[in-house]
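Two quick folds needed for the group meeting slides. Do the first one here.
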Amino acid sequence: MNYKVLDDKIVVYDKNCFNAKHILECGQIFRFKQLANDDYVVFSGDKKAQILEKQNCYEIVCSDVLYFENFFDLNTDYQTIKGELSQKFSILNEACQYGHGIRILKQQPFETIISFIISANNNIKRIQGIIERLCTRCGTNMGDYYAFPTQSQLETLTVGDLRALGMGFRAEYVFNTTKLLKGVNLQKLSKFSTSKLLEFLISLSGVGPKVADCIALFAYHKMDCFPVDTWIKKVYNQYFLDVNESIVAKGTNILQKDNVCEQTKNCAKCENISGTNKTETAFLNDENQTTKRVEDVKIIRKNLTELFGNLSGYAQQYLFYYKREMDRRGI
């Protein structure tokens, strides 16, 4: 990643691996606003950064450059990650090209937990409105914006206060989880294994498997998580159903090298493993295929994490963003 850290800004020269719209509008964060053109402002905790697009670069203007260098995960080589994902499936090649500038943010755990509880069965505009009202209600006044509330600040609100912000049934979840987290060092949870972390998160009020996966991925960078929602269910049933039947059943990770079907190197459903994907589109998109749809989220999550291993989180973001945007455009 080609970038330079200055006193009051970060200059990112590699626009193929950094795009403000892709990063902020791929479902991983809610506290941002679009400014003129393709410029944005993003908030994290009590911090703010403006992302300004220039002809040959992006400028991340902020008062804490080291924080936002980590926040945008600038030290990770996304070009290599996209290359690994793209070479195996044509759909991922398309998705990585479309959302080429996605980077998975490193967000603050408490803010991520509360934000994704609020996000359950909700739409983006409403989620953003609720969170903004929450920040204004009890977050620290930073001058031209309000910080996300700390745990102690949020503890001052009642269920009624939270309902008044428009949270509805989620108010009780936020209230109860805030109490449950009192005295918990959320940063130390990063040392937990993914399974242990998910177990803890699901014990919180209002946190189910999908929300837990989102928190683990976006706050703790657990890349072996694959949050499954409506868009991922569509992707799975359209592009990965047959792949999972023929490969995951054998306990195979699709991203392992030199992994060839023992039956024959010309097996139509495994051919992409040996370096070619000539038949991939044909059998994945066959409108006449008789394979039944899979609706069980647990099965979809299990199969996709087995397919992508420690690249699951990256694959999820590229696929989610691509499918959602294509459907919105009627493609």
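Then this one, please, same format:
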Amino acid sequence: MKTQSADLNGEAIANALSLHWGIDGVSLAYVPLGFGSHHWVANEPYGRKWFVTVDDLEADPAGRTDTESYDNLSNAFRTSEALRDRAGLTWVIGPTPTRTGDPIVRLTNRFTLAVFAYLDVEPTEFGEFCILADRDEAMRLIGAVHNFTSSVPLDALRRDTLNIPKRAGLHEALSTLDLDCDSGPYAARSQAYLRENADLVLRKLERFDRLVRLATDDPRNWVVTHGEPHAGNVIRTRTGDLVVVDWDTVAYAPRERDLWMMVNDANPDWSAYRDITGVSSLSQAALEAYRLHWDLMEIAIYVSWLRQRHGQTEEMKIAWSSLQQYVKS
């Protein structure tokens, strides 16, 4: 997150690092990064660094209970550990286990804590790959993950259903567009924008619903997927290695869940993935379904945020800008 939560206490984080990981005497520096988790760099007195991530269980967009959200995150990270340790995919950057082997701990009833090796990486942002060679290498890395599906325990792994978190709230917003909304500085303008574009959003939802059945009809070909292998999560270190981070969205799903971010009209070539997996074809319906799913998921989340009480924060500024982007994409 760009803004540090007032509910998070640096002393509590430092104490948890000492208790669960044996990392003592750290100084913490908040990192305004991403749009979901809270991040710090933890500096040990003798120079070693760690990347610390705190997730808010109450902010789970899928609406899971705190316990369900905790279990889902823990299982996702255990999957990344299996890919790294069992399959030998060393570029999978999973969490550093605690003294008792757990990938995360509860910092409080509401927040979880995970620790990662600190990486010195080149600056990067969410979105498409600027360099085609990086895109091809990313497809090979993701293809290797898919190839090693049999190395991962699947019983506890989430099965993707293409559910749109907060969809009910989006439908409610679309059905009450004549009402005034004064929940914050972006409320009235987002309400007006949604009113102007309601038909476009409804058409996206209708098209998506038709595609979902085609995209998920044959689970025999499903694989372990990362979920968000964009240029912000497939990153190059200063030593030149490409690594994959942010494994919290792992799920068992059609391979197109990963590939839609890399294969599109502008860059249709997916031979790098085909060569490493031997897959001869992709489902165009699944690619489009996952592309629409992303757009609608973002729209539903941002509408929810902007209808709630909010202030003039960097997150709300991004939410308002992103809502317009995804409605028209």
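Slide caption for protein two: The longest helix spans residues 284-307.
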